[in-house]
Structures are given as structure tokens and as C-alpha cells.
Amino acid sequence: MRRIYESDALHRDDDESHAPNERKRETKLQAFRSVPSSTLSDLLVPRRLRHRFVSVDVRTPESEYAVGESIPFAVTIRNHMPFPVSIPTASPLLWEWSVDGDVEASAVPLRDPPDEPGRFEFDRGERKEFRKRWDQLFRVSDSEWVPAEPGDHTIGAAINTADADRKGLAGEATVRIVR
Q1: Which of 23, 77, 126, 158 has fewest C-beta within 10 Å?
Q2: Closest Cα partner for 105 from 130, 135, 63?
Q3: CA-CA distances (angstroms) from residue 14 to 4, 24, 26?
Q4: CATH number at residue 152
Q5: What is the pTM of this model?
Q6: pLDDT (tens place) for every residue of the chain, 179 residues total
Q7: Is position 149 within any domain?
Q8: Is residue 31 part of a domain?
Q9: Domain range holding 172?
């Protein structure tokens, strides 16, 4: 490359229309600086109010399912505000789902998340949707599963914070299992 510039193979001329010209910038280039949405949320929105802007909704395609049929469900978590919001969580596990109060339909703990806090971040007006499936089985030990009894069962989801139900950061849907 150096030889091209030193050999005059490329000449610059302001008066010739097909030759590159000597361009001088009038303004100095600056890097675009941005503020992460979590920082903006921390600065502008008090922590005690953030939960009011986020909703959790659980939906199933049907309200009744036959015994043994998989039950698909969708969890929608939405920021209703035109500004970013971040919600502090108890661990890096941001949300969890449950069936009849058992996390992931299991009586035994499936995960041991670290005790370090996490953060569930939403851009302005952002909607996050998660799709899951419950196979009508409850885990009662590391290697044993029991089928769900016919009747009503509640599928719930909540953001992993203290008092998620009281803060409105939880949702649920009821399904009926029929023979």
C-alpha cells in the first residue's frame, strides 16, 4: 500500500471531477456514547415502583385436556412503559414456572442457582414471550414421575423476586384434565 501513495499513482485534485479531493473535516469525529437501559432505569425509576410497569400473563390454547396429553402454555412478560425498566431478581434465574405450586412440576429441586442477584431487563414497551409444555407429570424423586390426577390444575409463572404475587409479577392459568 505504501508504494501506491509514494509513487504518485493516486493523485488528488480538487478541480478534477474524477480524482479524489483533499477533504478536511470541519468537525472532529466522536464515538457515539450510549447508556445501557439498566443504568437508565436505575437512575430514573425508583426501585419500589418498577414492578408496577411489568405484567406477567400465562395462556393455554385450550382449557380442557385429555389425560396424558401435553399441555402447551405461553408466558408473556411485558413492560407497559415507553422507557426501559429493569427488575432486580434473587438469582440469575430470571423467572420460573410451576404447576399447583411445584416449581417446574417437581417436588425435588431441579437447579441450585447461585445466590448472586440478577436483573430482568426490558426495553421500552418490550414484550418477552416464552413457550413451555407440561406433560401432565409430577416429579416426586430424582428418577420417579407420577401422572397428574384428572381435575383442575394451575399453571403459574413468576419473576424471581421476593413477593412476586403481591407485587403483581406473577400470573396463572387453570386447566382441567378430563378422562
Answers
A1: 23
A2: 135
A3: 19, 12, 17
A4: 2.60.40.10
A5: 0.72
A6: 556 556 555 565 666 666 656 556 566 655 555 666 667 777 777 778 888 899 999 999 999 999 999 999 999 999 998 888 889 899 899 999 999 989 998 888 877 778 888 888 888 889 999 999 999 999 998 889 999 999 999 999 999 998 899 999 999 999 999 98
A7: yes
A8: no
A9: 47-178
